[in-house]
Amino acid sequence: MAYLDETFQRPTKQFPDGFYSISAVLIQGQHIRPMQENLRHIVDGDYWHATEALRDGKTPTFLDILDHMQSHPTLNLFVTTKEVNDPSDQALHDARAEVLSHLMIDLSRSHPAFYAVIAEQQNTRAKSNADEKLIRDLRNSGQIRPNIAYRAASPAVDRNLWLADTAAMTHRRTLTHSPKNETSHWFGDYLAKFSHVTTIGEDNNHDPRVLPRLTERMMGIQNNPDAPERFSEPVVDQGPLAFLMQQNAAIPLAQQIERQLQREAAGPAANVSDGDACEPPSLDDSPTL
Predict the structure, then answer these.
(1) Where is this region: Disordered (predicted)?
(2) Pick from 47, 95, 247, 283: CA 20 to 30 A from residue 238's CA?
C-alpha cells in the first residue's frame, strides 16, 4: 500500500517558481506495523512533522528516517510535481487534482499487488470531498483499477504517514534550495535510487519502460525463494491497517479501511496539517473520518 503527503509553494516575487508536489511511499503489507514501531523508536515519541523537525534542529533524526527508508528492502517512492504560476487558491486546487490524478494512475500501473492508499488528510471537508470525488471519477473512467482503495487519515492514526511527510520535504528541498545547501542533496543521496519522479508537462510521464523498474527490489524478493520476506508471506501482525493485505477479506477493502481508521481515530487526537506550507485549518470545517 502507499502513504501520501503533499508539499507546495505558491509563486511569489521572492520565489517565482511555484509548484505542487505529492509523494507516495509504498510499503508491503507485512511491514506496516513494524515500520510504525521503527519510526516511533527513531523519533523517540508519537509525533513527527518534517518541517518542524528541520526548523527545530532535529536534522539527525530527519536523516535517521531517510537512512531507514534507504535501507528498507521493499520500500519504493513515487513523486509527482506540477509547476504552479498562479498564487490563487483555485490554482492550487487545480494543481492538486492534476498531480493526484497522475500519481494515482502511476500507482495503479506500478504493480498488481498494490491496492490501497492512505493519504494525509486535508484540512477542510470541502477539500476532502474533492479528493474523494476525484478518486471515484478515476475508478469509474477506468484510469485506475476499481479495487484500489483510498482513504485520508491523520499521522496520529498511522505513523507511516511520517514517511511520506519526510519524503515530500526532502524532495521539496531540491526545488527550493540552491545546490550549495546540503539539504538540497538529500533526495539524491538517500531516496532517488528507488524513486519514480514525474514532473507533469515533461517527457517522463507514464512511460511504461520506467514504472517496472521501480519495483525491482520488491520483485527481487518475490522471485527469490530464499528471500526472508515475500509478497506471499502471511500477515502475522494485526496492528493498525495490517489487515489490508489479507486477500480473502469477508468485506470490501474500502469498508475495512474505513472501519479500522475509525477505530484508530478514537484513540489519540488527530494532528491535522495541510502540507509544508502550514496554512491554518478552518475551525468551522474540520475533516471527519
Answers:
(1) 262-289
(2) 47
Q: What is the pLDDT of residues 51-62, one digit of tens each?
A: 999 999 999 999
The three cell numbers of residue 162 are 511520517
pLDDT of residue 257: 56
Q: Is residue 83 part of a domain?
A: yes
Whole-angstrom Cα distance, residue 205 to residue 78? 12
**Angle at 240 (CA atoms; ends 236, 245), nearest 5 degrees:** 50
Q: Is residue 282 in some structural domain?
A: no
Q: Is residue 288 part of a domain?
A: no
C-alpha cell at 122: 486535508
Residue 285 lies in a domain: no
Q: How far apart are the first and last CA of the chain?
A: 19
What pLDDT score was predicted for residue 123?
86
Task: Give the chain's domain count.
Answer: 1
**Neighbouring-strand partners of residue 116:** 149
Checking if the pLDDT of 190 tops 70, the result is: yes
| Tens-digit pLDDT profile for residues 63-98 | 999 999 988 877 889 999 999 999 999 999 999 999
Backbone angles phi, psi at 201, to 5 degrees: 105, -15
Q: What is the pLDDT of residue 61?
A: 97
